[in-house]
Structures are given as C-alpha cells and as structure tokens.
Amino acid sequence: MPNFLKILLWMAIAGLGALALATIALHRGEQINAMWLVVAALCTYAVGYRFYSKFIAAKVLALDANRATPAERLDDGRDFVPTNKWVVFGHHFAAIAGPGPLVGPVLAAQLGYLPGTLWILAGAVLGGCVQDFVILLFSIRRDGRSLTEMAREEIGRMGGFVAYLAVISIIVILLGACSLVVVNALKASPWGTFTIAMTIPIALLMGIYLRRLRPGRVLETSVLGFALVILAIWGGQLVSHSSVAARWFTLTAPTLALVIIAYGFAASALPVWLLLAPRDYLSTFVKLGTIGMLAIGILALRPTLHMPPLTRFIDGTGPVFAGSVFPFAFITIACGAVSGFHALISSGTTPKLIRREPQARMVGYGAMMAESMVAIMAMIAACVLQPGTYFAINSPAGIVGQAPEAAAATISNWGFPVTASGMQALAQAVGEQTLYNRTGGAPAFAVGMAHIFSSSLGGQAVMALWYHFAIMFEALFILTVLDAGTRVGRFMIQDALGHIWKPLGRTGWYPSILVTSGLMVAAWGYFLWQGVKDPLGGINSLWPLFGISNQLLATVALCVATTIIIKMGKAHCAAVTLVPLVWLVSVTFTASWQKMFHSNPHVGFLAHARQLAEAGGNARLIFNDRLDAAVTGVLVVMVALILIESAVEWVRVLTGKTEARVREAPFVPTRFAAERG
Amino acid sequence: MKRIRRIIGVLADALREIFDESAYSRFLARSGLASSVAAYAAFLRENETAKARRPRCC
Question: Who's near A467: CB < 8 A, 6+ residues apart?
Fold first, then answer.
C-alpha cells in the first residue's frame, strides 16, 4: 500500500477512535449504543499497537530479529519449544484471561460506564500491555527467568523476597475474593449449585477417560465434558423444579463456603491428572467459546447502554464498593487494565515458546489488548441492565435492607427506579428465587450476558438457560483458579519450608502435601469466611484488597522493568515503564492509606472497627477489619521497600557508582532470521 | 481458499498447544513411544509438577 494511503488510513482510524471516545465522554442525558465502546476500544488498541508498541519494540527494547530465543537455543521438546506466534498468542491469552476482567468492570459500573471504560483503555494501552510486553522480552533474554528471579538479580535480595511474598499474598487474597464471588452466585440457587456440583464428577470422569480410554485426546475429551456440562445445566432446571432435589441443593452462604473450602483442600491434594488438569481443560474450552460468543452477541445485538456515563456514586458513597473514583475505580477494574499477575505468566511458560524475538510484541502487548477487550465486554454486559436492576442485584442487604419492597424503595430513591414486582419477574425469568443482594458481580454479569444472548438467540423463553450457562461459566472459571492457585501456593510454601526442614520441601511427600495444602486453604478460607459473615456482603472489603495486592504486584514488575531499562543505557526511554509505575504507586498507596485510615467507616477498615467497637459489635468483625488493615499495611510496606531499593539502584547506575550491567544470556545468532513476522 | 485453510490450521494448532496435545506428541516423538495408556501415564508423570506449578491468572 502506498505511504500516503497508509497515512490516510491511520488518520481515519485515529479520527474514528477520537469520535467514539468523545461520544462516550460527552453524551449526557441520553443513552448511547454499546458499539461506541467497541469502536473506541478497537481504534485505541489499533493505534496503541501500531505506534506505541512499535516505538517500544524499536527504540526501548531494540528487539533483535537475529538473536536466538531460549526456545531455540535450549530446545528440549518439553519446556523450551520454538512455536508458531499465533499458537503462542492463543496459549498466552488462555493463560492470562481469568475472572478478574469480568468481575472488576461489573463492580466499577456503579460509577457509570465512563470512568471504568476510560481506565480499561488507557490503562491497558499505556500500562498493562507495556508491562506484559517488557517483562516477556526481559524473561526471553534471561532464558525464561521468573519475575522473582529477575527481581533478585536486577534489584537485589530484598526485591526477590518481596516479590515472593507479594505473589503468595495476592494468591491468598485472590482465592478468598474469587471464592466469595462463587458463594454469592450460588447461594439459595439450586439450579446453579447443582450445575457446578456436577462439574466435579464430570472433571473426574474426563480425567479417567483421558488416562484410561483415549490417552492424549484432550480436545475430544473437552468436547465430551462440555456436552455433559450442557446436560447438567438442563438437569439443573429439573432439580430446581423438584421440591425434594431443590432442597438438597439450596445452600446457605456459610454452607457453600465450607463446601468450597473442603473442595479446595481435596483438589490440592488429589493427583493433578484426576481433577485439576481435566477441569482446567474444560474451563479453558468453555472460556474461549463463551468469550467468542459474547463478542458475537454484542456485535449482533448492538445493545443500548442504560447505565448513565457517571452516577451519583462517583462521590464515594456507592453501595457496591465504597470509595471515590480516584483511586477506587482503578483498583476495582484491576486485571482489565493492568494485572501484576500477568507478569508471572509473561515470565513463566510463554518466554520458553517464543520462536523469534520480534514476536514478543504481538504476544505480550497483543494478548493483553485482547484481555482488555474482554473487560470492555463485561462493562457492556453490566451497563445494558437497567441501573435499578443493576443496583438491586449488587447492593448488600446491610445497605438496602432484606425486604424486596424496602430495597426497591431505597434504590428508587437514589434515582434508579426499580420495583419489587419487576425484580421478582426477572428472577423468575432466569430461574432464581431472588436476585436481591447477589453481591460479587457474577450474577449481574450473568443477567447482562443472558439478556444479550437471549435477545440474539432464543428469546425470553431460554433466558434462564443462558443465565445459568453464564453462572456455570464464571463459577467454573473461578473454581479452576481456586484449584490451580491453591496448588501453586502449596508448592511455594513447600519451597520455603524445604529450606527449614528438607522433607517438607518434597512435593510428593504426603504429610507435607497435607500440611501445606491445609495452610494454604486455611489462609484463603479465612478471607472467604470473613466475606460470608460480613453484613455488607464481603466483596466491599475483599475486592479492593485483591485489587490493591494485584496492582502492587504490577508495581513490583514495573520496578524490575524500569531497573533493566536503565541498566540497558536507555534511561531516556525509562518513562514507558516509569510513568505507569508512578501512576500505580499513587493509586495503590492512596487506596491502601484510605482503606486503612479513612475516617468514613464505609471506606476505612480501622474506622469501621472503631464504629463497631463503640456500638458493642461482634468481636470477630472488629478483628477482621483490623486484620484487613494489617494485611494492607504489610503489602504496602513490602512494596515501599522494593521501590526504595529500586530507586537506590537507579541512582547508583545513573551516577556511575554501580556498573550498568544487565544479566542477559549471551547473543547467539538465530537460524530463523530469514522468517518474516 | 488456501488462506482460509491456513488460518484453520493455525487455529487447530493453537488449540492443540493450549490443550497439551502438542506437548504429548512431542513427548512421544522424543521418547520414541507409540500412544498408549502407559505412554500417556509417563507423559502425565513427567509434566505433573510443571502443570501444577502453572498459575491460572485472575
């Protein structure tokens, strides 16, 4: 294509993106079509990828098409395998896409669609994609080293130790928050509980089928498992209509929490092939299919957003989570814009598969753009609901009251009309007894998704099936994170305990497995229990805690990246990681400070504890608030230490007191240099 | 037509990689084994720790 046509094309894309963003930002008082969000996102990603990621690739990282990657140099046909870039892209996207970008935007929708959408786009293009890309490249140049190893080598011992503690903390808090989302989605829902319960024998059956009957036929087994899951969703309807069976599967939140804790322990101790691996395959299969279906559904329906761009809750008085736009919109969106957890994947399996260095751009930067698009779709799913319905589902009983009439009156008084009869009709349409007080984001997302799917395919008659399909999708997703997270945490604890007493470090020794699994499950189980017992629904305190820890991990990753860029002699380009780092530090430290010390009891843990103590409240709730404040404080102090250590290292390198030496693997020419792309 | 076939091929390869079928094929090629219950059990044993240590993202 001639150059002037290219320039015209990119000007048109940029202009269309600007128009879409202006429409999103400036429309007041009338509803807009969701396609404006989709167009704004696609144009922003296109411009970000074409220009910003290319600038980083060329000027900052200097990607070298002649340099062999570890996948080529260390090719062992097992961990290190040079792989087609689209295959690595799919593999990387499947690994980074989790429940976070679905739940976060749904919760952030309480502020209106504007703050969350803008942060998802800006945060991803300038922060999240950059972090994933640079960490992936730096890991490639270090033979696939992990984030914690790079932190130790490039920053110092403190960096490695803090990264280790940050990773284990985020896993514990993540599992507590995510399992609470499942509990809130399944409580008093015999249909949903039956469907999810059935996924356990289905996964076991898949494990046995795969090992004994059709070894290695994972795709075939996953298709079979998916068919059984669809059957379970259909069966759930029968269960919910049977008075006897419905009673067995109608569980309270505390009972569900205990069942999930027991499940987490068993899943961590059982052989990988029996439960974890087949469930992981099934979840990935459903995840990729459902995300694709949701994209098609939104494009086919082109729904109208009923949520206003900004709600009255930007002042921090929202019922879904307390706290103002800055910093809590950014903390709540979490993985849809920037996720520290991605740095673990970018320095895990992916760098060992990249065939040629330039492909790191498409995989690292590109896959995060796709994840960000998932977050935009979640935002659309939440905002197609009538705001009154959205708040009725997501507001805890502690704020709007238990009785449907009282809740509807409170929410209508906020300016978001909703009626008890309307909510009852919606609950019946989706096959639930009630949709009030279903905090956590999953039920609201499921209702939005069911609305989009049923409007495109099948109509109101199949709304209940789509709703339970969406609930199954989210719960399956989260339980897979729970399985894998508990086991990863268990291995990390075993690695650490192995330094104290060698047998405890043996991953196959059953006493050690039981002790460390127990420790891990007890840690996240405590947070889950705390959330279940919280009269404000739990998600109000746990999701910000998760968001803070996730963004703090991103801070660690960006510290590592900035240190390496400075040591590469590219200090003049360090802004690409330094700017998102400064932003994340200001967001996370402000949020942490406010969560600990804010005088409003709805925001500050300690103020809430004081309020409870003065009212003679439950001692356990008071302890939980203080514990949450302490956990937040410890996380912030740890990250402050790594920040200080990094800054000292930067100054030493820039003033010449320390030799600017990067620890890259030596250059070896690649035999794939002639390949394109 | 050729292009569509290529895209479908890459998509199938991506799914085979995501679902560890490619890893199993590489294992069979590396160890000179034919696919069987015993070979798959050996593959699972070899990959168990790596698979279990792989975090699923949030």
Answer: A430, A431, A432, A446, A447, A449, A450
CB contact under 8 A, A77 and B27: yes
Tally of domains within chain A: 1
Has the ipTM of the complex gone over 0.85?
yes
Cβ pair A211:B26 closer than 8 A: no
Distance in angstroms (rounded) separating the CA atoms of residues A599 and A620: 21
Residue A666 belongs to some domain of the structure? no
Q: How far is B6 from chain A (nearest CA, A)?
A: 12
Tens digits of residue pLDDT in A88-136: 998 899 889 888 899 999 999 999 999 999 999 999 999 999 999 999 9
Q: Quick check: A532 and A177 in contact, CB under 8 A? A: no
Task: Determine the residue among A169, A170, A219 to mutate to test chain B binding: the one whose Cβ has the most chain B Cβ atoms within 10 Å.
Answer: A219
Determine, yes or no, domain membership for A11. Answer: yes
pLDDT digits over A587-610, tens only?
A: 999 999 999 999 999 999 999 999
How many CA atoms does the CB half-sphere of A199 hold within 13 Å?
A: 31
DSSP A83: B
Residue A244 lies in a domain: no
Q: What's the Rg (C-alpha) of chain A?
A: 24
Calculate how close chain A gets to B55, using CA atoms only, in Å: 6
pTM of the model: 0.93
Residue A83 backbone dihedrals phi, psi, to 5 degrees: -130, 150
- Asked if B23's CB is within 8 angstroms of A485's CB, the reply is no
Taking the Cβ of residue B10 and every Cβ of chain A, the question of whether any pair is shorter than 8 Å is answered with: yes
- Answer yes or no: is A220 within a domain: no
A374 to chain B, minimum CA–CA distance in Å?
13
Residue A106: domain span: 3-188+251-654
Listed in sequence order, the residues at least 6 apart from A540 whose beta carbon sits closer than 8 Å to its beta carbon are: A320, A321, A322, A396, A439, A534, A602
CATH number for position A368:
1.20.1740.10
Using CA coordinates, name the residue in chain A closest to B34. A215
